[in-house]
Amino acid sequence: MANFKEIMSRPERLTGGHRMCAGCGGTIAVRNVLKALNPEDRAVIANATGCLEVSTFMYPYTAWKDSYIHNAFENAGATLSGVEAAYNVMKRKGKIDDTYKFIAFGGDGGTYDIGFQSLSGAMERNHDMVYVCYDNGAYMNTGIQRSSATPMYADTTTTPAGKVSDGKMQNRKDLAEIIASHHIPYVAQTTFLGNFKDLHEKAEKAIYTKGAAFLNIMAPCPRGWRYPTENIMDMCKLGVETCYWPLFEVIDGKWLLSYKPKNKLPIEEFLKPQGRFKHLFKKGNEHLIEQFQKEVDDRWEQLLKFCEV
User: Fold this and answer.
1) DSSP code of 277?
2) For the chain (length 309 residues), average pLDDT per consecutive 10?
3) Which residue from 95, 97, 87 is spatially nearest to 40, judged by alpha carbons?
4) How many separate domains does the chain show?
5) CA–CA separation, 134 vs 29, rounded Å?
6) In Å, how far are 28, 103, 228, 230, 252 from 235, measured between CA atoms?
7) What is the reported pLDDT for 100?
8) Where does the chain show beta strands of DSSP type E?
9) CA 110 to CA 131: how far, in whole Å?
10) Residue 176: which H helix or E strand, with range?
């Protein structure tokens, strides 16, 4: 593990000047994951279609300092696994001497939903690559439509809250658990807390663990979640302290809890600052918050059992 101060001082591998929104969680995730790369190592980046792709790569201009491949929504996992396989062949034949790492980035739409098939295939084949999901809980790039990562009762453009609907009616898919069921070497869930130490440590493990690795990073979207842009770190902290977004690792099948709140906060603390949940706080909707709390509590208890805590 590299010295944390040294990691923070490494040059940026995603440059400024791109067109992502101010306060976007996606670019914060990318910048900090890429800092986990050793400076002498080179990388090939695959990027599923989404906010990140359309705003950081406007041909012929790019914000990426590493080799970059724009994929369709559905095939980032397949594309990068093919590149990794070709690299191994060329390495064996002595045609490449440099060390390359292979990292795919995708939002929850391109990861949980449209790209899941190729992601699952890449993980099952155990390619030496990292897939990073920057999870902002909806299809933000195309107008804030619900995805399977969207939490229950969220108000989106395709699950509008109103007189006939309470927002999205289904529970959020637990993708980290699904990927862990592929029995790959490394899976982790993290977000932006304090000095980013948890994210950096997990990103470095993911990149330098031999075989397939998956990182799920909660990356709040001020536009879609409807909270003040400057409050992104508060949103991440509340997600963790309420156990909506617990921090954990799965290393060679062993579940490890990264953080257990001393005083678990009620889910209202996470929901109330977000405009997408404002309807839950209207009189008569108390039972909806109770249902949301029950789902969070059930998943938290299940995670504690997995981690044998």
Assistant:
1) G
2) 76 92 95 95 96 92 95 96 97 94 97 98 98 98 97 98 96 98 98 94 97 98 97 98 98 98 98 98 97 98 96
3) 97
4) 1
5) 7
6) 14, 26, 10, 10, 31
7) 96
8) 42-47, 57-58, 61-62, 67-70, 100-107, 130-135, 186-190, 213-218, 248-251, 254-257
9) 11
10) helix 175-180
Q: DSSP labels for 24-88?
A: -HHHHHHHHHHTTS-TT-EEEEEE-SSHHHHHHEETTEESBSSEEEEPPTT-HHHHHHHHHHHHH
What are 305's two structure tokens?
């059992």
Say if CB 143 and CB 282 are below 8 A apart: no
**Spatial distance between the Cα atoms of 89 and 29, rounded to a whole number of angstroms:** 31
Range of the domain at 213: 4-306
pLDDT of the residue at 1: 58
Alpha-carbon gap, residue 111 to 147, rounded angstroms: 10
Q: Kindly report the CATH number assigned to the domain that includes residue 61.
A: 3.40.50.970
CA distance linking residue 170 with residue 281, whole number of Å = 19
296 and 288 Cβ atoms separated by less than 8 Å:
no
Please report the pLDDT score of residue 134 as a whole number: 98
Is the CB of residue 186 less than 8 Å from the CB of residue 209?
yes
Beta sheet of 67-70, edge-to-edge order:
67-70, 42-47, 100-107, 130-135, 213-218, 186-190, 248-251, 254-257
